[in-house]
Amino acid sequence: MATAGAAGSSGRTYSFKVVLLGEGCVGKTSLVLRYCENKFNDKHITTLQASFLTKKLNITGKRVNLAIWVRRSLMLGSCHHRDAFEYKTVKNWVKELRKMLGNEICLCIVGNKIDLDKDRNVSVEDAESYAESVGAKHYHTSAKLNKGIEELFLDLCKRKSRAESDPDFGFSGF
Ligand SMILES: Nc1nc2c(ncn2[C@@H]2O[C@H](COP(=O)(O)OP(=O)(O)OP(=O)(O)O)[C@@H](O)[C@H]2O)c(=O)[nH]1
Ligand SMILES: [Mg+2]
């Protein structure tokens, strides 16, 4: 997940763009649907190309407008990819994003479906230390159980608005 975009010009309203990237079936659409509409669907309906939802927040007096995009994976959506395989592609996404956008973006690595923890193939420690090594923050969520999602977006907005108002803050080295 990455955010880009500038603070809105009208007073203390910030406008941020959030893009969810990832393999098919990892729960990108579910995360956004849970966050924006508090809905969850057990069925997997592959996102065609891209989808878009908005959300308004108020963080201690700062208004934040989020435009949340979900980008379909370049690979065919499938629920049969294993975590280890997906993790390799996370690393490729991160490399590409850093190459294209440098440190302008606020990177989050999200491990969704924590309700299926028994099927985990990548340990929490490995995921967290990898995230740290690329200047990203790691989050755990479950769209199904509505766990960790509010916290994820709230933290992201706080980091992003802080970086907007304090250019020295940056996004790496948390
Ligand atoms: N158990 C569990 N299932 C989830 C969770 N989040 C999503 N799912 C299920 O995983 C499947 C895929 O979810 P989607 O949100 O459609 O996945 P996606 O990443 O948008 O998939 P594509 O659009 O194909 O790229 C669906 O059957 C969801 O119900 C979760 O937190 N826990
Ligand atoms: Mg989708």
From TrEMBL:
SMART domains: RAB, RAS, RHO. It comes from the Eukaryota. SUPFAM superfamilies: P-loop containing nucleoside triphosphate hydrolases (SSF52540). It comes from Goodea atripinnis. Keywords: GTP-binding, Nucleotide-binding. Belongs to the small GTPase superfamily. Rab family. This is Ras- protein Rab-21.
